[in-house]
Every structure is written in C-alpha cells, then in structure tokens.
C-alpha cells in the first residue's frame, strides 16, 4: 500500500469534513436541520475519525519510505520548540470559556493549528511532512479567515472573563508544552524534539 496515497486520502477526508462550513455552510445548515446538531456532530465525528486513522496510517507508511526534499537546519528544532509554546496555549484557550485569549482571537484552536503546522514545516523536509503540515497550514489559514468573516457578519464577540481564566489557560498550555518536550512527543509520535 502506498503510504502517500493513504495519507492524502486521510487528509482529504479529515480536512474535508472540517471544511464543510467554509465551502458549504448552507448545505451544513440543511443537514443539521434534518439530522439535528447531535446527529450532525456524530456523523462528522465518525467521518473525521476515519480520516484521522487513514492519515496516521498513511503518515507511518510514508515515513518508512522517506522522500527527502530538503535538510532541515539544526536550529529549526529550537524554533519549533519555541513556536509550540503559543500553539499549545492557544489550543488550551479554545477549551477554557471566558478567557481573554479567546476574546482577542476568537478562534484560538485554529490559530494554534496555524502555528503548529508552520512550525513543523520548518523541521520536516520530507514529502510526507510537507503533505501533512502543509495541508493543515493551508486549511487553518482558510478556516480562520472564514470563521472571522462569519463572526463579523453575525456580530459575534467573545466576552473577556476574569483574568484568572486566562492565567489558567496559559499555565495549562505551558505544562502541556513541557510534557511534550520532555516525554509525550517521543511517546506519541516517536520523534524526540531535540534528538
């Protein structure tokens, strides 16, 4: 099985399901009307899981047959480690209601994916990395832009809650970043950030 084809199929399915609101918001609304919000989320969740499974499998297969496009400089690892700190703080901020990061950015998870993908492109000079992180970067740029446009059109704002919620998001983000640097990245991904 060609790992690159499996990876591309996984990316199409995963990012496609997460792009429906960007390219077909009317159809999405009609489907939610027919299935209900829980039915829609269940359907999107199942399809996303399939895409994610194919993506992981395909990336693993492609890593076994690497196509090197460029050699990443050693300093890039340090830049990635630094960029991952705000990426993980943004990710955490997406799930803590009423924090000032979400109030300022609106969609911190997608902003975090932007940083994550860009950072990882710096150290992945292989075709599989370019496909994976490049696809996520392109998707995140369009997704963030579309979400901000929707917010402006609907007059949506995100309230800034107490400073304590923002501090909690930052502290958890830093702790998650430290855990990934020290152990989680190598356990989950098989790559030592500074190895």
UniProtKB/TrEMBL annotation:
<feature type="domain" description="NnrU">
    <location>
        <begin position="6"/>
        <end position="193"/>
    </location>
</feature>
<keyword id="KW-0472">Membrane</keyword>
<feature type="transmembrane region" description="Helical">
    <location>
        <begin position="129"/>
        <end position="147"/>
    </location>
</feature>
<feature type="transmembrane region" description="Helical">
    <location>
        <begin position="167"/>
        <end position="191"/>
    </location>
</feature>
<dbReference type="InterPro" id="IPR009915">
    <property type="entry name" value="NnrU_dom"/>
</dbReference>
<feature type="transmembrane region" description="Helical">
    <location>
        <begin position="104"/>
        <end position="122"/>
    </location>
</feature>
<keyword id="KW-1133">Transmembrane helix</keyword>
<feature type="transmembrane region" description="Helical">
    <location>
        <begin position="43"/>
        <end position="62"/>
    </location>
</feature>
<protein>
    <recommendedName>
        <fullName>NnrU domain-containing protein</fullName>
    </recommendedName>
</protein>
<dbReference type="Pfam" id="PF07298">
    <property type="entry name" value="NnrU"/>
</dbReference>
<feature type="transmembrane region" description="Helical">
    <location>
        <begin position="74"/>
        <end position="98"/>
    </location>
</feature>
<keyword id="KW-0812">Transmembrane</keyword>
<dbReference type="GO" id="GO:0016020">
    <property type="term" value="C:membrane"/>
</dbReference>
